[in-house]
Amino acid sequence: MGERFAVCLRINAAARLEGLSYSQLMGCLKKAGIVINRKALADLAMNQPAAFKAVVDQAKKKAEKAAK
């Protein structure tokens, strides 16, 4: 298994716990203007779940505002 694949799996698993798929999360991050390295995001998901949740919540909030 490649490193990028493993990183995407980790992000996807953590995103699902927050009610999003990997692609939905990436879309929210982009719409919200949040730029973060996938490897760093996966590290947050594994080692700092509260920080990962904060990033996801911020992305959701900003993406919703951008859509209005």
- The oligomeric state of the chains shown is single chain
Mean pLDDT: 92
- The count of domains is 1
CATH superfamily: Ribosomal protein L20, C-terminal domain
Using the 3D structure, state the CATH architecture.
Orthogonal Bundle
> Helix/strand-derived class?
mainly alpha
Order of SSEs: HHHH
Set down the secondary structure blueprint.
Layout: H1 3-17, H2 22-32, H3 38-47, H4 49-67
Helix pairs in contact: 1-3, 2-4, 3-4
Descriptive keywords:
68 residues, c-terminal domain of poly(a) binding protein, mainly alpha
In short:
This protein is mainly alpha-helical. The chain contains four helices and no strands.
Describe this structure in words.
It contains 4 helices and no strands. It has one domain: c-terminal domain of poly(a) binding protein (Orthogonal Bundle), CATH 1.10.1900. By secondary structure, the protein is mainly α.
